[in-house]
Design brief:
heterodimer; A: 235 residues; mainly alpha; 2 domains; two-stranded antiparallel sheet; globular; B: 172 residues; alpha+beta; 5 strands; 21% strand
């Protein structure tokens, strides 16, 4: 029982910190740069992707034994597209302003590499509970990363938070931060900060080798290109 | 079973199951979306024409010379009008709604839909409020978003043409 709880926690923390899809794996950068000019857009995109990740991971895990290998990717895409459409319809019905704000980027969740990546590398090889937890962890990691980026850009670029003006900052806005180049700048700066802060926790002092890669546990090519040093944990 | 046949059947079955899921969600949300769209139209009309208490839709096919960009037209109770237009900016699909008072002044203009990521050009319409037709023609475009703001400006010019057509129609 204790082992299961520990595994569940590690799956959640994996997505949130150690394999954070945005700051560690550098996946899903298109919506990350496009919708983080406001906290509201970032939160909305994060929660939408989280819902799709949990649902698609669960269904892929449930069906993966029945799906022939040759058509697994088209099946995964259909599953992901269906859940994206469900999220779109629910958002259009109950949160029309957020739906309009996210625009085309909501539909583009279908081709977000985090979602297809987790379906292919994790949900297609693991049980339902583990896959749902992996989706939850990755979704939370994505949401937190987007919210952090959105907060930096909106607070310092627009002098507001969630659309509410922050008195002092209204006179010291750095408008560049809410523009597309500002998105790249904040993204790079946050990756640098997260890498510096988590260097010990994520990669330790290991050399960046195949084994040090956060994806190595799930990578189907385990062993390929791994040297004797890698096998020993490459220091 | 033939491998290819099994693949086709699996793919079809997955698509069918998800189709049922989508149909169910659509049944639940369809009416709510229709209501929300109706509310959004009324909100947009009031936003660009604040003085209007009630609006009546105009059948634009009954008028001749209507600019091709005009999609919908509404008559306000005080004689002004609101025109919904679709134009092209950097990309096509730029939908603008514009209110024009009875004396030919822009009361509001806003972008409803766009296929582009709008920044400063999203609020371009706010700068046209209070201007008459010549004021709109002489308004500056936004540097760096020239195509989009030029498209926006052209749409407002078409709204003035439509407003005149509606006025002439009433006089007749």
């Amino acid at each position: 029982m204790q082992k299961t709880e520990k595994n569940a926690l590690s799956l959640l923390l994996n997505g949130i910190i150690f394999e954070n899809p945005v700051f560690v794996l550098v996946l899903g950068t298109c919506p990350t740069l496009a919708v983080t000019s406001s906290v509201k857009g970032a939160l909305g995109m994060g929660i939408a992707a989280l819902a799709v990740l949990v649902c698609s991971n669960t269904v892929v895990s449930l069906l993966h034994k029945l799906i022939p290998d040759e058509v697994r990717i088209p099946c995964y895409i259909i599953i992901i597209a269906a859940f994206v459409t469900v999220v779109q319809m629910i958002m259009q019905a109950f949160m029309p302003e957020l739906y309009a704000l996210l625009g085309v980027y909501l539909a583009l969740i279908t081709v977000n590499c985090i979602i297809l990546g987790r379906a292919e590398m994790f949900a297609g090889k693991n049980g339902i509970i583990e896959s749902a937890l992996d989706g939850l962890g990755m979704g939370l990691g994505f949401t937190l990363a987007l919210t952090l980026m959105g907060t930096v850009r909106e607070v310092f670029g627009n002098g507001s938070f969630l659309g509410m003006p922050i008195g002092v900052l209204q006179n010291y806005k750095i408008s560049f931060l809410v523009s597309p180049p500002g998105g790249f700048f904040v993204f790079g700066a946050l990756i640098a900060i997260v890498t510096a802060l988590t260097n010990g926790a994520v990669n330790g002092k290991r050399r960046l080798t195949c084994k040090a890669c956060p994806m190595s546990k799930m990578c189907g090519a385990s062993g390929e290109g791994i040297t004797e040093e890698d096998k020993n944990g490459a220091i | 079973m033939n491998k290819a046949l099994k693949s086709v059947m699996t793919l079809s079955l997955v698509a069918l199951l998800l189709g049922v899921l989508l149909a169910s969600v659509n049944k639940l949300t369809g009416s709510v979306i229709a209501d929300a769209n109706g509310d959004a139209t009324v909100r947009a009309l009031r936003e660009v024409y604040p003085k209007g208490e009630s609006f009546s839709a105009v059948n634009i096919s009954e008028y001749s010379g209507v600019p091709t960009s005009v999609r919908e037209a509404y008559r306000a109770d005080d004689g002004g009008c609101v025109i919904k237009l679709e134009t092209s900016g950097y990309k096509s699909g730029l939908v603008i709604i514009c209110g024009i008072s009875k004396d030919g002044i822009v009361t509001g203009a806003k972008c409803l839909e766009s296929q582009e990521t709008l920044a400063a050009e999203d609020t371009y319409g706010a700068g046209l409020v209070g201007k008459d037709e010549s004021g709109v023609i002489n308004a500056q475009t936004v540097s760096g978003a020239t195509k989009t703001t030029q498209g926006y400006k052209n749409a407002i010019k078409d709204a003035f043409i439509m407003s005149k057509i509606l006025d002439m129609g009433e006089e007749n």
